[in-house]
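Example 3.2
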Amino acid sequence: MNQTGYYVQLIIGGNHMSEKYRIFGAELSPYSVKTRSYFRYKNIPHKWVIRSPANADEFQKYARLPIVPLVITPDNEGIQDSTPIMDKMEELFPEPKTTLTMKP
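Structure, written as tokens:
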């Protein structure tokens, strides 16, 4: 806990040396946890960042709305909302597949 009484925590996903994406989220946000789970399943290198007052300036620099999740790409683009985030990642990381295909 920092001096203001807020917990500030960074949880590393993937290989620390190849981090590319930063996910700003909250443990109590189902959409943040869904996004983090998706990145883990796809093995997309990322860093999980708990949104807090300590990182508010960075969050506001990329966010259009005051909501999580927010993903910051290697190109410094901010993407919000779990569905657009996953749509973009599916284009870039098509494997492993996230949908089941029914064979006739």
